[in-house]
Amino acid sequence: MVEEIGEPVSVLASFSQGRVAPLRFKWRNRCYQDLTLASTWCDYEGASKRIYFSVLNTDHANLYELCFHTRDLQWILVRIHHD
User: What residue segments make up the domains of the chain, in order of their start?
Assistant: First the structure.
């Protein structure tokens, strides 16, 4: 089942060697940490780049899709794929 979310989230991310990767995020007062990166892709909204990440949390029960908007440095939880 896929649940569309589209809400801003707080993300702790690593910016290293020209790459960004989410390490943990907070959504609705719950912290999701020890994330495993499943995939990443990019697109553009006008001239602004958006970077998407699919991540699994420690129990691998759900896949979370996060989007980083480079224009305003905002993170969005796009959707959750539930088992």
Answer: 2-82
